[in-house]
Design a protein that fits this description.
single chain; alpha+beta; binds guanosine-5'-monophosphate; binds zinc ion
Length: 114
């Protein structure tokens, strides 16, 4: 069993505000929102980061993007748009070692790097 904060959220050992869940994916509100809508979408499989992605995960990652779009629709931001960020490793600024996709929306997002 992984001693990881997001695995604990999946197992309901740590409370969170879950907005989506299926067999493979869970999404919950970020505890420190950087935008009016800030949701973390994660695979239930403990993949530490994109670096550890395996061939068998390709379909799962594609599905995550479909779910992100579904959540964006439910949150009512499809017309205005949203941003997805995946921080990877030290230089990427990743703090939690369980692959997660930040879904940010609800305001004009600034600080574009690319
Ligand atoms: P990273 O910097 O690794 O890309 O993003 C980690 C994110 O996880 C941060 O935005 C942080 O606010 C969020 N986070 C860290 N611990 C918890 C927690 O216990 N619950 C929730 N809901 N979010 C968390
Ligand atoms: Zn984990």
């Amino acid at each position: 069993m992984e001693d990881c904060i997001f695995c604990k959220i999946i197992r309901r050992e740590v409370p969170s505000n879950i907005v989506y869940e299926d067999e493979e994916i869970i999404a919950f509100k970020d505890i420190q929102p950087a935008a009016p809508i800030h949701i973390l979408v994660i695979p239930k499989k403990h993949i530490p980061s994109l670096v550890q992605l395996e061939k068998e995960d390709e379909i799962l990652i594609g599905k995550i993007y479909t779910i992100i779009n579904k959540i964006a629709e439910e949150q009512g931001v499809l017309d205005k748009g949203y941003r997805v960020i995946v921080n990877c490793g030290q230089d990427g600024g990743q703090e939690v070692g369980h692959l997660h996709f930040h879904l940010l929306a609800g305001k004009r997002l600034g600080e574009k790097i690319v």
